[in-house]
Design a protein that fits this description.
- Helices cover 69% and strands 5% of the residues.
- It contains three helices and two strands, in the order βααβα.
């Protein structure tokens, strides 16, 4: 018997959480948006690192969420400044 059974690649949970947090960061207040964007950045980095494994997908999703999270940080800062 062959003990090296290949499993189907799956998306990593941190990459999916990063994308969700990055999207939601645009629809909440400035402080919460900044917090969610930071969470998205952390989860995106973790998801990107996990995607280096051949059995885990989500590298593109993580990279996309990192871009969205960076934009979310900028939007949150602009919202905070405009409210002052």
């Amino acid at each position: 018997m062959d003990s090296s059974i290949q499993t189907k690649p799956h998306y990593s949970i941190p990459s999916i959480l990063a994308l969700a947090a990055a999207i939601v960061s645009f629809f909440v207040s400035a402080g919460t948006g900044l917090l969610l964007a930071i969470v998205a950045i952390v989860c995106g980095v973790i998801g990107f690192i996990l995607s280096l494994s051949p059995s885990v997908r989500g590298g593109v999703v993580s990279a996309f969420s990192l871009c969205l999270a960076g934009l979310g940080v900028v939007v949150a800062i602009i919202r905070a400044v405009v409210r002052l």
